[in-house]
Amino acid sequence: MKQADRTFPLPFFTINKNFTILTFSQEAEKLCGTPASLLEVFDQGSLEKVKKWVTPELHKAALEVHLKPVAEGVEPLTVDLYVTWDNDLYAQALIIPKDDKLTKVTKTLNQLRGRLNDTNFELLDEKEKLENAISQNNRLSAPFIRLTEDTALIPLFGDLTQVKMQAVEDNLLKSSQNDDIDRMLFDFTAVGEMNREGIQVLTNMMTSLFYMGAEIVIIGVKPKQVKVLHEMVIPSQIRFMNSLQQAIHKYCVE
């Protein structure tokens, strides 16, 4: 195992089909140390998911997993794992830590669900808290992650509904202006179903960002999603790329 020659702005590994780590980035070393196997990176509860989905037969995978706690008593760190196989032997694995706010909201949701299972005594009060947490979770389902001085990543998660897209619209428009971002990468890898009303809100938002001066790049679109996107009216200058790894290599690797 050796450190990767190129510097990536996020934790990055090259592995073989046995999960042996062949190379890794500096950010990966800072976050995970220097394990021999990718399986050593993740919490026990995530291992079966990793073994099931990280396989050459699937070619690409995007899943939410937990890193092994760095110390006793510390909560496991929730991250998104993106894996692309170059062939049947070797793959590239990219780890994107969840936004702190999103992690806190997810933890709150889990705590609320547990309490509601134990007692119905405060049902109305807890229901209101849960609805507020779900609303906050919707707003954070498209986090704004700054990769470089001029490039930001917006990974989209779950189904693209009208309510969810309306919840994230203001934050993304404000973040792009406040951070003076020139390029925004919208990653569809972890997107589920695409509600027509939801995708219309998203394409309108992309169009607004484009006319505000930002370069828009759409990545990770599945074949069945391409038809839906092309039915929407979006500027022809908006670019499409196959994968997050390809976009990072083009725009973020020094």
From TrEMBL:
Against CDD domains, the record matches this protein to:
STAS_RsbR_RsbS_like
Q: Which Gene3D superfamilies match?
A: STAS domain
The segment(s) forming the STAS domain are 141-251
Query: Entry's InterPro entries?
Result: Bact_StressResp_Reg, STAS_dom, STAS_dom_sf
Q: Where is the signal peptide?
A: none
**PANTHER family for the chain:** RSBT ANTAGONIST PROTEIN RSBS-RELATED (PTHR33745)
Q: Tell me what this protein is called.
A: STAS domain-containing protein
Origin organism is Halobacillus campisalis
